[in-house]
Design a protein that fits this description.
The protein is α+β, with helices and mostly antiparallel strands. The protein is built from 22 helices and 7 strands.
């Protein structure tokens, strides 16, 4: 009796594993994670039922896992579907199997191309198992075509392999052999496991055609690649080829070599060999004795040998099961002792709980006193730091330069000079007014920054442009922020970032709510200047920037982040920090 290679979805499995890194773009949102936890619960229940042999309950759990999963991730749905589909095939429930494929096709999962390939492979298995070979061949053609379009060699091999198997089931062994032989000759990059499957079945087709030498050649090649492969059923597959080669040598009446391969079969770990294989090899040994015209004593000796082998096999399995049960009993006893000790420890801790709580309450009261005192001291210090910051904001050098530019402008354009004098006076007035307040309205702060930027444009007419982006909610709510936190960073961009550039600089100021926590407003200041190298140099940090950094750290608990706007070119600057609001 020849043994078929078990090939269904093995290639698909390896293909999916390779794609997990790409198809798992797989940062799922919170709802997705919750749904996966629920579906995983049902799936694990199904695995337990399956391990216990209760396939009906396993099916129901797998169905619940599929129904409760709203994830769009292909790999999540793949394992649920494949395990449910596998039960349908094992129970020959092909109608339910096909219905499950149709349901799987309706799922909105990504990537869709992987879903289609798996569905086609499943249709092949279901229709082939139910002897609907015409439909099975149609889906092998579809799977082959989509594999060609996506350059997926794994599924392509799967399609051709199943096409060959279907022709064999239809009784056309010659065509089955040709299809599989063309596959083997079309590609030199097969893995050892793929070659072992292909050559094994080629040997089987040769055997059916009566070409026993050709069968032995292919069986031997398959045996060679099975020995090189690392598939889980490696020992059983090696046993298959030993048995097949021995059978072919019996047909050739080469009894000596047949005996060698049967002996090699017996040298394998019989615990890893399927019992059906062992029964068939026993039949081959009987045929070998009959062909060699052995007397009854040799036959009886063989029977005794097989009986002893069986007894040894079941004895070893019994001992392994007994050893496993002993280990489980020991673990249970150890766990019971640990639980009892844990209960004793819990009671001991409870006796000390009241004393510890009393000490903690006293300590907490003392700590609260110091916390409130520290908070008051910090508020006073923060106010002082803010006042120092405001006094440092108006750079005297900047004021001198502005006045100088206004003076020059008076000579050439008195109207323009008048407008900028007005802007400058407003800026000075606003700075003085804001220096007396801890918080000012956002619109007022934007007005101050606008006046400042317009005055800078007076100094540098064509150097830069600017833009503000404000959260829409700032227009509907009366929101205030500490004054003069943004101006020093804008000044750095103009004085340092745009220094020596030969293009128009751009400054963008963005104030938005980035989280549901409305205690802070996120500020983003970006420029397309030379980069933020100067910002990272502590020696070159202005006093105002350092004061702002300290203020932000104390008031929000976060730090100011400085990054390149263009990381590849290391140009531009992006300043990000949180601003407290009220």
């Amino acid at each position: 009796m020849r043994f078929f290679s078990i090939f269904f979805l093995i290639i698909c499995l390896s293909s999916c594993d390779k794609k997990k890194s790409t198809s798992s773009n797989q940062n799922l949102d919170a709802l997705d994670n919750d749904s996966i936890s629920i579906s995983e619960k049902y799936y694990k229940e199904g695995l337990e039922y399956y391990d216990n042999g209760d396939l009906e309950k396993a099916k129901e759990s797998y169905k619940l896992a599929i129904d409760s999963c709203v994830s769009k991730n292909f790999n999540v749905h793949y394992k649920y579907f494949s395990d449910l589909f596998g039960i349908y095939l094992s129970k020959n429930e092909y109608g339910d199997a096909i219905a499950s494929i149709k349901d799987f096709e309706q799922l909105d999962v990504q990537p869709k191309i992987d879903k289609m390939k798996l569905a086609y492979a499943a249709y092949i298995a279901a229709y082939s198992g139910s002897s609907s070979f015409t439909e099975a061949l149609d889906y092998t053609a579809k799977l082959y075509q989509i594999s060609e379009e996506t350059n997926d060699s794994s599924y392509k091999i799967h399609a051709i392999f199943n096409e060959s198997s279907i022709y064999h089931k239809l009784g056309d062994n010659k065509k089955a052999f040709n299809v599989l032989n063309d596959l083997r000759n079309s590609n030199s990059n097969f893995s050892s496991s793929e070659l072992s499957f292909i050559t094994g079945d080629l040997g089987m087709y040769k055997f059916y055609e009566g070409d026993f030498k050709g069968a032995i050649d292919n069986y031997s090649t398959s045996l060679f690649f099975y020995k090189k492969s690392k598939i889980q059923s490696r020992t059983d597959n090696i046993a298959v080829q030993y048995a097949n080669i021995a059978e072919a040598y019996i047909e050739l009446n080469n009894l000596e070599k047949a005996a060698v391969y049967l002996d090699s079969f017996r040298q394998l770990d019989q615990g890893k060999v399927d019992n059906k294989r062992r029964r068939n090899v026993f039949k081959y040994e009987l045929r070998l004795l009959k062909a060699s015209k052995s007397d009854n004593k040799r036959i009886e000796s063989l029977v005794d040998k097989i009986t002893l082998d069986q007894e040894k096999f079941y004895s070893e399995r019994y001992n392994k099961d007994l050893e496993y049960l002993s280990e489980e009993k020991e673990k249970s006893e150890t766990l019971l002792i640990e639980n009892q000790q844990a209960e004793l420890d819990r009671l001991a801790l409870r006796n000390n709980f009241i004393l510890i709580i009393s000490i903690l309450i006293i300590g907490l009261l003392v700590a609260l006193f110091f916390v409130f005192k520290q908070r008051r001291d910090n508020e006073i210090k923060a106010l002082r730091d803010q006042q120092r910051l405001l006094r440092a904001q108006m750079n005297p050098h900047f004021i001198f330069n502005v006045l100088s530019n206004i003076q020059n402008l008076l000579r050439n354009d008195s109207k323009a000079a008048s407008r900028f004098i007005t802007k400058f006076s407003r800026l000075l007035r606003k700075v003085l007014e804001n220096s007396m307040q801890n918080y000012v309205a956002v619109v007022e702060e934007v007005e101050v920054l606008t006046n400042y930027l317009e005055l800078q444009k007076l100094r540098f007419p064509k150097l830069f442009i600017y833009d503000f982006k404000l959260d829409e909610r700032l227009n509907d709510e009366m929101i205030s922020i500490p004054p003069m936190l943004i101006q020093p960073f804008v000044e750095n961009a103009i004085e340092h970032g745009f220094k020596g550039i030969n293009y128009t600089g751009e400054i963008k100021i963005e104030l938005i709510f980035t989280t549901e926590n409305k205690r802070f407003l996120s500020c983003f200041i970006s420029d397309n200047g030379k980069g933020h190298t100067h910002v990272n140099n502590e020696d070159k940090k202005s006093a105002s920037v350092q004061l702002i950094s300290d203020f932000i750290k104390k008031s929000t608990g976060s730090s100011i982040e400085t990054n390149y706007l263009d990381l590849d070119q290391k140009t531009g600057t992006l300043i990000t920090f949180q601003i407290p609001i009220q």
